[in-house]
Amino acid sequence: MADSHPGRKSFIATVGIGASALLAGCNTPKAEQVGSSAAQAVADATASVGSLSGDAQAIVASRKMSPADVTAALKTFVPLGKHDEYLMFASGGGSGQVLVLGVPSMRILKVIPVFTADSYTGWGFSDGSKSCLNDGCVGEKVITHGDTHHPALSETDGDYDGQFLFINDKVNARVAVIDLARFETTQIVKNPLMISDHGHAVTPNTEYLLETTQYAAPLGWGYVPLTPEDYKKHYRGVATYWKFSRSKGRIDQERSFAIELPPYCQDLADNGKLVSDGWSFVNSFNSELAFGTNYKGGLPAEAALSQNAADWLHIINWKAAEKLVASGAVQKKNGLSLITIAQAAQNGILFLTPEPKSPHGVDITPDGKYIAVGGKLDPHVQIFSFERIQAAIKRGGLKHDSYGIPVIPLDSSRIAQIPIGLG
Question: What is the pTM of this model?
Answer without folding.
Answer: 0.87
